[in-house]
Amino acid sequence: MNATISEVKNYVGGEVTIGAWLANKRSSGKIQFLELRDGTGFIQGVVLKNEVSEQVWEDAKSLTQESSLYISGTVREDKRAPSGFELTVTGLSVIQIAHDYPITPKEHGVEFLMDHRHLWLRSSRQHAILRIRNQIIKATYDFFNDNGFIKVDPPILTGSSAEGTTDLFHTKYFDRDAYLSQSGQLYMEAAAMAFGKVFSFGPAFRAEKSKTRRHLIEFWMIEPEMAFCDHEMNLRVQENYVSYIVAQVLKNCANDLKAIGRDTTKLEKIKAPFPRITYDQAIEFLKEQGFDDIEWGDDFGSPHETAIAEHFDVPVFVTEYPTKVKAFYMKPVPGREDVVLCADLLAPEGYGEIIGGSQRIDDLDLMKKRYEQFNLNDPSYKWYLELRQYGTVPHSGFGLGLERAVAWICGLEHIREASPFPRLLNRIYP
Ligand code: 4AD
Ligand code: MG
């Protein structure tokens, strides 16, 4: 019977054949222990010299790290084995003997590992992280589908910028100019006016010259957008969503969290509602903490975000930032032109901003004024203004950076491990 390692539990006492790679091998005299992996798990294959043919014994001996093979054996329950099962090998067919696999069980430097990212993905730690990433993606789809949202896919090639022009990736679109999407938001606003509640999940590109442990050049973003939704309702969706993905990871990825050594007591505290402070209060707080490099009106740097977040052991919303440090589409706080109805959600433990969101300007005249101020009166933004012209409604939305969320939930030192093939300032290989 063909089976994967995760399926062998269904065949105790029976014989299975598994397609696998050799992760490691030990031998002592007349017995060889093969540590096998197939992507679904690990299992030990035991080869007994007296019980297999000469050929099988010799083939097993020839196996090197990452050699590929089909292996047959009888499934035995073994409480001491990490997977709970063992394979008493009966047959073995080598697909390829791998020579000089570069990633050995010894320690390697980060640059070396990044150069071999295509192989590093096979290690159990990277596996656990990317499985948790997958769980967050699944929980995202479940949360939004269960709450009446429709997934709508915004374009990747765009003629306009959503988040300002400083970090746009430029490309040619035949004989015209185009950009890689920084955010699907503007299109999601159009979709919200058609469907009410929508969400997207897609890549975003930022040509940011930042070399930090929080920045990727290419990352994935989840962007919900809701019609008839104000700032307050927007924050409630965010805290419920973040609490839900953390709960799902705790419930379904216990082994993966253990494999990467994550302190789960910190995650168990993540439950809505989350605390909130205004930008005004945050500035005051930072001054009290002795930060003299920040004035009202400045955007926060990561030391500021970390100082604020350290004050709480759950994510915290910083609300109502100055209008001038935020995007053109954010709605001012009623009665106060200098701050907007927005929030950044800062993760605990120094992981920084995981969500940026806001209530959007729904007033046609104010939006026209912003078009003047931001020089948006070119044909590529015409359609966005029309959303305020034909049945405008209060609406809000947000964007969660997937890799930032993965880095925080997994407790990673650097965001690079949160992406299978990270694009960094100095790296587009492999
Ligand atoms: O705060 P940002 O720039 O907001 C937007 O793009 C809005 N249009 C979203 C919306 O309201 N629909 O980005 C949103 C999130 C950030 O909070 C962060 O988690 C992530 O995207 N992000 C990055 N993640 C990794 N590397 C980068 N360079 C990132 N830039 C933003
Ligand atoms: Mg932001």
From TrEMBL:
Enzyme nomenclature, EC number: 6.1.1.22
Subcellular localization: Cytoplasm
Residue ranges constituting the Aminoacyl-transfer RNA synthetases class-II family profile domain according to the UniProt record: 130-430
InterPro entries reported in the protein's UniProt record: Aa-tRNA-synt_II (IPR004364), aa-tRNA-synth_II (IPR006195), aa-tRNA-synth_II/BPL/LPL (IPR045864), Asn-tRNA-ligase (IPR004522), Asp/Asn-tRNA-synth_IIb (IPR002312), NA-bd_OB-fold (IPR012340), NA-bd_OB_tRNA (IPR004365)
Keywords: Aminoacyl-tRNA synthetase, ATP-binding, Cytoplasm, Ligase, Nucleotide-binding, Protein biosynthesis
Uppermost EC category: ligase
Catalytic activity: tRNA(Asn) + L-asparagine + ATP = L-asparaginyl-tRNA(Asn) + AMP + diphosphate + H(+)
Keyword Aminoacyl-tRNA synthetase annotated: yes
Any one Gene Ontology molecular-function term assigned to this protein's record: asparagine-tRNA ligase activity
UniProt cross-references to Pfam families, sorted A to Z: tRNA-synt_2, tRNA_anti-codon
Quaternary structure and interacting proteins, as annotated: Homodimer.
HAMAP family: Asn_tRNA_synth
NCBIfam families per record: asnS (TIGR00457), PRK03932.1 (NF003037), PRK05159.1 (NF003483)
Family stated for the protein in its record: Belongs to the class-II aminoacyl-tRNA synthetase family.
Name of the protein: Asparagine--tRNA ligase
Organism: Sporolactobacillus spathodeae
Gene encoding the protein: asnS
